Structures are given as structure tokens and as C-alpha cells.
Amino acid sequence: MVLHDGHVVYHRAAGYLDREAQIPMSAAPSFGCIQLKGHTSAAAMALVERGQLSLDDPVTKWLPEFRQQGLMAARRRSPYVSY
To answer: Is 3 helix (H, G, I), strand (E, B) or coil?
Structure first.
């Protein structure tokens, strides 16, 4: 979708919603998670502005599940994770 001055000037769906079942992508699919990155980033930057979060903090300070040991094991198993 392309917007210009708040108006849709181009809108097209491409690919498949389910490739195996050959279900084409609809023009208005409902993907609730698409907005999550933007909202999460905005919330994180608001915390940085307030001094409650530092961009230099290790991720394990806030998400202890992401221990380095676990990440290294995942990298060894997956050819898609870059070093």
C-alpha cells in the first residue's frame, strides 16, 4: 500500500496467505503483529528518553531468557542466524 497525503494511491496484494493450500493473499489481511514492532520501538524510545532504559544495556538485563549461552546454541543449530 502506498499513501500520499493520507490517501491510498496504490494498493495490491501479492503472494499467498497459505502457500501449501494455494490460498491467495487478500487485499486486507488481518495481521495483528505487524504493528507490534512500531509500538514496541516507540515504547522503548520513550523509556530511553525518561532514562529508564539504556540502549547500551544488555538484553539479558530485561529479558533473562536471552542468555548468551542460549543464543550461541541457536546460532550453531541454524544456518539462518548470522554471527
So the answer is: strand
pTM for the full predicted model: 0.40
Q: pLDDT at position 13, please? A: 77
Dump pLDDT digits (tens) for 13-57.
778 878 889 888 877 655 655 566 778 888 989 999 999 999 898
| Cα 67 to Cα 64: distance, rounded to the nearest angstrom | 6
25, 16 Cβ separation under 8 angstroms: yes
Residues 2, 16: Cα–Cα separation, whole Å? 20
* Cα(79)–Cα(77) distance, integer angstroms: 7
Strand ranges in 1-83 using DSSP code E only, listed in sequence order: 2-4, 7-10, 16-18, 23-24
